[in-house]
Design goal:
Length: 376
């Protein structure tokens, strides 16, 4: 063994002896470059500043849209629905299979068009009554539900005809995903377009409560998170804390009372579009006039404790705001949890997903479900 080692050491590089006595030298892989160290995580201050700047930009943009008028607000809502629908159906898109299904992807957009026609058709026809031909107005207004049903049946037959034996499982999954997306993205928030023309306060109040609850949950979670309850709020969102959830609930209730009082004193938010166009303003109605709790609830005063009857005088809109704030704090966050579940499911399945899509759905889902509650 020692002679063999000496012979190997003495053999020149590339000689036969060196090759024979060191078989591992040929099999050894080429040297890989050293892995670059991972980027250091962002500090809490950097994250805070980023969220603060983005939040301020979104708030100013929101007020800019509100100041543009009722029609612009409705158009903005529809655009949000279209973009959200597009991103949702792209999550489960697989190019390799879609190439074999000519026209199948267009059926998703056809169903979105049919839903828009059913939901918004009559409102748009009334708004543009003087600018569209009479026969189109007649089609949209008269037997509107029948025409919507016919369009749906045509799409249903088109989907069935598009099925292929090799991809039928994928196609059924896509159709089911599309129907669920339409229910969440279009059907839920369509109430907002009806309420906007009754007064922008009915858009501003619930949306501002969603924003307030989300911001307060973040700040309270940073300040006292995990100090009283050392467990996450949900397994889907491990960064959410019970302290942030409860603290945001309390602060959102306080915000609801103050915001309702301020907005009810502003004619631009309080008055309907017709009142603003015809009279330039409106007198405060029952909804915006301070009164007692029994009158607001339309119940016998004996059912309410005496100290509330004699001391509590609020505007009915403030009571509505309290209900909205409870819904925004207790129920609407589950829309964000749903977005987190979708994100984790898509990452697990290695399907198309981007942080930008998660961010948009993160803010829209709570608003969608709250708008549904508001409309009812």
């Amino acid at each position: 063994m020692e002679l063999r080692k000496r012979a190997t050491k003495g053999a020149p590089e590339g000689s036969d002896e060196s090759t024979k006595t060191s078989p591992k030298s040929d099999a050894s892989p080429t040297a890989q470059p050293a892995a670059q160290p991972a980027a250091p995580p962002k500090s809490k201050f950097s994250t805070f500043m980023t969220r603060t700047i983005v939040g301020l930009i979104m708030i100013f943009a929101f007020f800019g849209i509100l100041s543009a008028g009722h029609a612009v607000v409705c158009c903005f809502v529809v655009l949000l629905q279209v973009f959200t629908f597009r991103e949702m159906i792209n999550i489960r898109f697989r190019e390799a299979k879609e190439k074999k299904l000519w026209g199948f992807r267009s059926l998703h957009w056809y169903f979105l068009f049919v839903t828009f026609f059913w939901v918004y058709g009559q409102q748009v026809a009334h708004y543009f009554h003087n600018h569209i031909p009479a026969w189109i107005y007649d089609i949209v207004i008269h037997r509107h539900n029948w025409h919507s049903f016919v369009l749906y049946v045509v799409g249903f037959m088109g989907v069935v005809f598009s099925f292929r034996k090799q991809t039928v499982k994928y196609q059924i999954g896509q159709v089911t995903w599309t129907i669920m997306t339409i229910l969440l993205v279009v059907i839920q928030p369509h109430f907002v377009t009806r309420n906007v023309y009754q007064g922008l306060i009915w858009l501003m109040l619930p949306h501002s409560m969603i924003i307030c609850n989300d911001i307060m949950a973040y700040f309270v979670g940073i300040a006292i998170g995990r100090k009283f309850v050392d467990r996450p709020l949900t397994r889907l969102s491990p960064n959410k804390t019970w302290e942030g959830f409860v603290g945001a609930l309390i602060l959102t209730l306080i915000y609801a009372i103050i915001a309702a009082e301020i907005l009810s004193n502003l004619e631009y938010f309080r008055c309907s579009k017709a009142e603003l166009d015809n009279h330039g303003g409106c007198a405060p109605g029952f909804m915006f006039t301070p009164t007692t709790i029994p009158k607001i609830l339309n119940v016998d005063p004996s059912w309410i404790p005496e100290f509330i009857n004699s001391r509590v005088i609020i505007k009915p809109v403030q009571l509505h705001a309290l209900v909205f704030s409870l819904f925004a704090s207790l129920v609407a966050p589950f829309g964000g949890f749903l977005a987190s579940a979708i994100k984790r499911a898509c990452i697990h399945e290695m399907i198309n997903f981007s942080p930008r899509q998660n961010t948009r759905k993160r803010f829209l889902d709570p608003g969608f479900i709250l708008r549904c509650c508001q409309g009812l």
